[in-house]
Amino acid sequence: MDFIRNHLQGYGMSDLMVAYLSNIIMVLFIAAVSVIANLITKKIVLNVIARIVRRERHKWGVIVLEKNVLHKLSHLVPAVIIYFSAWSFPAYQILIERLAAVYMIVVTIMALNALLNAFDEIYRSFEVSKIRPIRGYIQVIKIVLFIIGGILIVAGLIGQNPLIILSGLGALSAVLMLVFKDSILGLVAGVQLSSNDMVRVGDWIEMPNYNADGDVIDITLNTVKVMNFDKTITMIPSYALISDSFRNWRSMQMSGGRRIKRSIQIDTSSISFCTEQMIGEFQKIHYLSDYLATRTNEIEEYNRKHQINRESRVNGRQLTNVGVFREYITQYLRHHPGIHQQMTLMVRQLAPGDNGLPLEIYAFSSDTAWSVYETVQADIFDHIFAVAPMFGLRIFQNPTGHDIVRVNENGKAAKPTDFDSEAG
């Protein structure tokens, strides 16, 4: 500044003119230096750093560059130049220093925010991120960062110690608790969800209270985002997963088997003892040949040992068509490639009711994928419905309009005509 003033005074200018011109020239000089320094930082320094980082095999450096962390930090260079040039303007030195300091605080906060975003993306590239998501914690850090930054900005503008402002926040604690209620609840819920491993990104959860039934695609501080199977998105508050009940299908997916639990209704009027002709036909079935040979020998031995009167089929032990059918389904499932053979497998009878005798298939498919599971289940029951008549069994079904029409047509065909009545 003195150098500029001395040169201007050499031209015979007045002191007022020298003061104005020297200030203008100094401002232009500082602005030019700031622009040049900013260009050098962005065009040269950042490009050199970017080339070095891209040569490395680690992806985290590229992610930091993509989040513009260094680009945001480059804005500190002109702010530092302006801050340390404030002494050139004694009348405005304090104001310039405060504004430059506030600008540096804002730039630092934005750079740290970008760095946290980069850290979150780097962490998501690891498998552990699905088990221990940290996005909620990062959001808490961001909230704290912005609060501290706001306090420093206010303190810098009014020229007060930040601790004085912090001491005044005690009176606003109730208001802050109300404003950040969801964030606080979400933080506590996030800690419990993570520590207890209750839900992960990629889990299939079912929460009827919120109409959620799909895969978890994101876990944040306040919400858990679920993509339902109809491709809609449901947002669930994080604390709702702690306060309400929900179903997590992760263990089913990890077990490698998905449960099949479905019944067919057998018409009880079609259940009967097996005749010798029926047993002869059943012995032609591959899955039943060994079973019938063993079972018939066991029954014959029992009846002979106890001297059972075989004139009545009620006496002694007899095979029934529904029992043989149940054994057939069991053997069919044990030889089915789509059924998990190391998990529970049984065919059982449930309590009979108005719709007949329920015969329940309880097994697990060897593939947990939804489409494969439904295909395996459909194939099994297609076969069961088709093979049931071969055992003399009828699947119960409530009468339909077709059945009623058929009964009426049969009744009309059997009804005698007036001519037949007179002839009789």
Explained architecture:
The chain has 424 residues and is an alpha+beta fold. It folds into 4 domains: 2-192, no CATH class; 195-254, SH3 type barrels, CATH 2.30.30; 256-272 and 320-415, 2-Layer Sandwich (Alpha-Beta Plaits), CATH 3.30.70; 276-317, no CATH class. It has 19 helices and 8 strands. Strands 4-3-2-1-5 form a 5-stranded antiparallel β-sheet, with no helix packed on it. Strands 6-8-7 form a 3-stranded antiparallel β-sheet. Helix 2 (15-55) runs antiparallel to helix 5 (76-84).
Question: Which helices and strands appear, and what pairs or packs with what?
Answer:
Blueprint: H1 2-9, H2 15-55, H3 59-66, H4 69-73, H5 76-84, H6 93-124, H7 128-131, H8 135-158, H9 162-168, H10 173-179, H11 181-195, E1 204-207, E2 212-219, E3 223-228, E4 233-237, H12 240-243, E5 247-248, H13 250-255, E6 258-266, H14 276-282, H15 289-305, H16 321-334, E7 346-349, E8 357-365, H17 370-387, H18 401-414, H19 418-423
Antiparallel strand pairs: 1-2, 1-5, 2-3, 3-4, 6-8, 7-8
- State the share of residues found in helices, binned by percent: 55-70%
Task: Give the count of helical stretches.
Answer: 19
Secondary-structure element pattern, one letter each = HHHHHHHHHHHEEEEHEHEHHHEEHHH
Query: Uncertain spans, ≥5 residues at pLDDT below 50?
Result: 417-424
Q: Indicate how many domains the architecture comprises.
A: 4
Rounded average pLDDT: 82
| Strand coverage percent | 5-15%
Could you give the count of β-strands?
8
Distance between the termini: 139 Å
State the shape. rod-shaped
Rg, rounded, reads 42 Å
Biggest β-sheet, characterized? 5 strands, antiparallel
Assign the structural class, choosing from mainly alpha, mainly beta, alpha/beta, alpha+beta, or little secondary structure.
Answer: alpha+beta
Strand order of the largest sheet: 4-3-2-1-5
